[in-house]
Amino acid sequence: MDRKLGWDGVEMAGDTTQTVGDCVVHGLKEMYRAQVLCDASIIAEGRCFPCHRVVVAAVSPYFQAMFSSPLKESLDGVVQLQDVSPSVIQNVLTYIYTGQVVLTLDTAEQLFSTASRLQIIPLLDHCCRFLMNILSLKNCLGIYTLAFAHNKQDLLQAALPYISHNLSQLSEEEAFHHLDLQTLISIIASDSLIVSSELAVYRAAHCWWNCQPEDRRPCFRELMQYIRIPLLTSRELSEVKEDMSDATDDEIAMLHTSKEERSQRSLPPLRQGMYCEKIACVDLQVREDPNLRDQDFYVDCYDPLSGEWERLAALKSLMCPGCLAIGNMLYIAGGTHQDDSISDTLHEYNSVTNKWLQLASMSVPRSMHGFLTCKQKLFAIGGWNGSSLLAIAECFDLKQREWTPISRLPLALQLFSSAVLKSKLYLIGGETLEDGHHQNHQGLLIYDTESDTWAQLPLGIVSISAGAVATDNGIYVIGGYCLGKPRPRSQNPFVTPELCATARCFFIKEDGGIGKDSVIPPLPEKIAAAGVVRWKRRVYVFGGENGFRFYKAIYYWEPGDNSWTKCRAKLPISYGGVSQFGCTTLNVPNPHIRSLI
């Protein structure tokens, strides 16, 4: 029987089919090896490499511009490449024709530079991936320098953490002393440096400066403008002044910043290592106490390393608020006031200044809602406005400082757990309204922040007032209320009587399915409406309720553990326990930084 083959394939011996594309690639490779029909040559250090101009121009905008311009190279097809070794050109051409290249640290750096110069993006990305995979403390400075010189941001960001965590050690290395000025500045200007004191940054810059030849040393003032002088303590300033004994009067004057002057203007941004990640709890007080005023409702902050609590600036009582943090900024949206009215406010707390600021209000009051952050936006979703459940959602742009509506939820929802996973917002379980009655929502809503669309998936289980924390590939759902035997529950007006607290914990995969392979042990108690956060690798559970009593214990679990660990510390309250409060991790400045404010 006759076979008809189109452009996509030709019949080969043995009844195998090869595409035209395969034939073209194979044919060009063979012509390159045999140097047949070559119409261009690349010259490196006097050595000639014949090639086909249409092939190299197809993958390199550099060669395409060269061969399509009225320059000499387009006429005779000869391109002279300065400062490139013959072995590198050989590897570049081999890659262009075969897609293959053997990389080592030395060859990868040379090919990276040449691929960047010739704009051969596939080869550049290939070298970039290789360099990322071999990054170490030993080679991070060289790779960072390479990435900075070619403005390769992904490689730059991969190398920076090695430098950020080891600045003092690396500043002693010869490779550090050989950094050019602009590369050094990009390092010492970075917020990402893991240093507890600005003195470490100064010492690294001073060490580099001392190692430069005197006739090529930049003005030290040029470096000092990247040292955040207001972050130096009095003792640290004394050391700097001793080093600058030969400095000009203007340079010395830079160091004279009184504490009064600092208090009148904001501190420069802190380095990453100047913070300690702690856990903030909002509204732990007995809101029914008539003697408590707004100024009595402190934000309590827990240090998992020391097990100690401290108080931050107070905010008015807000039960069931939206609570999240970005770095050292804490955001509280909505919640229920002491008089049971619902708030529409958005408050911002700066842990550096220890002050609250009220921002633009939401379009509607909300409590028992979702409040999440993604890509410098805050999302307020669903909830209760005091008279009805909400299906409306909105987002606050932290740059524009204004709210805008987003797509409505497929159904009104409250008391769900929520988390962000890979630019999508996950709403798990909760309560909805059907025919005027509260119903358990046995489903999952996923909001795509890119397309502004919702997806609705079945969950198959009841999960109300649970906690949720995201990992790299899914979400842990902790405790909450589930279906149980009917029982009176007069203590909690927010949850229907047929529900009971559960110790159940489960894992939701990125696609919305329940993951059977990611096992998390049940809680030691049946706990709902607790403060649940992820701190480093641990999942923490603070307080909560079971429908009949409240808790003030603190538990944590770490992947790999077979059970939860009970902390010695408890919530810093004198009464039995508390639930429905805001809880999130927050970067808090180290004590010596706070002494500068």
TrEMBL record:
<dbReference type="Pfam" id="PF07707">
    <property type="entry name" value="BACK"/>
</dbReference>
<dbReference type="InterPro" id="IPR011333">
    <property type="entry name" value="SKP1/BTB/POZ_sf"/>
</dbReference>
<dbReference type="Pfam" id="PF24681">
    <property type="entry name" value="Kelch_KLHDC2_KLHL20_DRC7"/>
</dbReference>
<dbReference type="InterPro" id="IPR015915">
    <property type="entry name" value="Kelch-typ_b-propeller"/>
</dbReference>
<dbReference type="InterPro" id="IPR006652">
    <property type="entry name" value="Kelch_1"/>
</dbReference>
<dbReference type="InterPro" id="IPR011705">
    <property type="entry name" value="BACK"/>
</dbReference>
<dbReference type="InterPro" id="IPR017096">
    <property type="entry name" value="BTB-kelch_protein"/>
</dbReference>
<protein>
    <submittedName>
        <fullName>Kelch-like protein 3 isoform X1</fullName>
    </submittedName>
</protein>
<dbReference type="Pfam" id="PF00651">
    <property type="entry name" value="BTB"/>
</dbReference>
<keyword id="KW-0677">Repeat</keyword>
<keyword id="KW-0880">Kelch repeat</keyword>
<dbReference type="InterPro" id="IPR000210">
    <property type="entry name" value="BTB/POZ_dom"/>
</dbReference>
<feature type="domain" description="BTB">
    <location>
        <begin position="38"/>
        <end position="105"/>
    </location>
</feature>
